[in-house]
Amino acid sequence: MKEQKRIILFALITGVILMMAKFTAWFITSSNFVLTDAAESIVNVLASSFAFFSIYLAAQPRDANHPYGHGKVEHLSAFIEGSLIGIAAVTILIKSVYSLFYPNPIQNLLIGALIIGVTGIVNGVLGWYMIRKGKSLPSITIDADGRHLLTDMVTSLGLVAGLLLIIFTKIMWLDSALSIVVGLYILYSAYKLIRRSVSVLMDEADFAIVTEVIKVLNEKRRDSWIDIHNFRAQKYGNDLHIDCHLTLPNYFDLNKVHEEVKLVDALINSEVTKTELFIHTDPCIPQCCHYCSMPNCPIRSEAKTEDIAWTLDKIIRNKKHFE
């Protein structure tokens, strides 16, 4: 967590400096178009501040009130960041529409474009770095903050192009018109960030991870692993929690059952991702025999007649495969 805190703190300090530069550009130009970028920079600072706190809280150990840890606060941070971006976008849209009908004089656009261009490049480099770190650590908070900064870079570069267009064409109403376009883009970015965070807060299944787990289990499946069902996966911050039912031969003693469960645990942790598994073991019954691959089974009631591949639709059901 120390590295995550260091990254967020650096982003926060950088955000404050860039915010001051953007508001300086707005004071110089009086441009609504420049104000769109300056207003969003306030969100950058507020979001980085909350992100710093959320990473601190996510690092706290489990306690009686939070048996799965505090990891979900990172997704709450991403939700708040998306909400703040959305509020900024709506504010920008309202002011820009107003200025279409009641325009104000603008000036020094070339200086403003230069300042905004430099801040955009800085945000782009920092955003790219944070996204890369967000994936390697991993941290949704750093990833979300990085994507926000990349969005800020895109809007800043678009803003520079728009300012240059206004300078060369002398069409002043383009200032408000272009700020409306940028405001809509920012609003869409906010929606995507909120949608992503809410999906985790609502425990929406991560089908990419589940599919990868199923693929590995099929490839490394042992004969004694007769059946897996009632498979569920949840993410709490950086930690993945999986619970499932594993059917094993009913003549295995407790030590053997424990050994098989540990093998499943080690396989998923080594081949897919850091995972905490809760595996409920079921004893096999005669109806399992037709798809059981266990050799030299002393209780087999019928020969094996088919192979049943573990697929997403099969393992998520709370049923053995013969049901």
Write up what this structure looks like.
The structure is a single chain. The chain is mainly α. It has 2 domains: 2-201, Up-down Bundle (Alpha-lytic protease prodomain-like), CATH 1.20.1510; 207-315, Cation efflux protein, cytoplasmic domain (Alpha-Beta Plaits, 2-Layer Sandwich), CATH 3.30.70. It is built from 9 helices and 3 strands. The chain has helices at 2-29, 32-58, 73-101, 109-136, 140-169, 174-201, 207-219, 254-271, 312-315, and strands at 227-236, 239-248, 275-283. It has a 3-stranded mixed β-sheet, covered by helices on one side. Strand 2 (239-248), helix 8 (254-271) and strand 3 (275-283) form a beta-alpha-beta unit. Helix 2 packs antiparallel against helix 3, helix 3 (73-101) runs parallel beside helix 5 and helix 3 (73-101) runs antiparallel to helix 6 (174-201). The longest helix is centred in the middle third of the chain and has 30 residues, at 140-169. The radius of gyration is 27 Å and the shape is elongated. It starts with a helix and ends in an 8-residue tail after the last helix.
